[in-house]
Design brief:
With 203 residues, this protein is an alpha+beta fold. The protein contains six helices and 14 strands. The chain folds into two domains: 50 residues, no CATH class; 144 residues, tt1808, chain A (Alpha-Beta Complex), CATH 3.90.1570.
């Protein structure tokens, strides 16, 4: 059957597998696999969040953040970078998909093959979210607060429109105004997110 979910931006038709049942982890994974053309998250309260496909600027900005993180991870070799299509099942039951995320290899190696094939049952060690024009600031802040509450060591919320970066750690939340770059030291030594192409896209 089909379910129509109204969002502020569009109507999206979602294929619902007959076996969805009680929305357990396996069923929710199947639901997301049946609707690969959209990003779907689940909050800790069980609310389903449907996110539209990114526009040109947003896709470039989040892609640039992931590309830099991936390049750093390849050279560092202590962890793995994941893009926005990866779901993480958080300790509170929510399933989230940051624009870019990094996990230490030692944590990933503790998981079995099935856990790695489905939503990764861990909170990332480091993540980046890039705000798009359609994002609600309240929703973004709730999402970052959720990451922090479940133990995220370091998270960056990039706000291209205002050229701000919000840095979330377990100890504090602080805001940088138009920084040229931002560091992930000492968690990911040597990683500097160059923001020049995000502040001033080449097109």
């Amino acid at each position: 059957m089909q379910l129509t979910i109204q969002t502020p931006e569009f109507d999206q038709f979602l294929e619902i597998p007959k076996s969805l049942g009680d929305w357990g982890d396996d069923e929710f994974f199947e639901f997301c696999q049946a609707n690969r053309d959209v990003r779907i998250e689940r909050t800790a309260k069980g609310e389903i969040v449907i996110m539209p496909l990114a526009g040109g600027y947003s896709g470039f900005e989040s892609g640039e953040a992931f590309a830099q993180l991936r390049n750093s991870a390849i050279h560092d070799k202590t962890g793995i970078a994941f893009d926005s299509s990866t779901g993480f099942r958080l300790p509170n039951g929510g399933v989230r998909s940051p624009d870019a995320a990094w996990l230490r290899l030692e944590r990933l190696r503790e998981l079995n093959r099935r856990q790695k094939e489905q939503f990764i049952p861990l909170c990332p060690d480091f993540l980046i979210e890039v705000a798009s024009p359609s994002d609600r600031f309240s929703g973004l802040h709730e999402k970052m607060a959720e990451y922090r509450e479940v133990g995220l060591p370091l998270g960056l919320l990039i706000l291209p429109k205002t050229r701000q970066v919000e840095i979330y750690t377990l100890a504090e939340i602080r805001t940088l105004e138009s920084p040229p770059s931002v560091s992930a030291d000492p968690l990911l030594p040597g990683f500097q997110l160059d923001l020049s192409l995000i502040w001033d896209t080449p097109f």
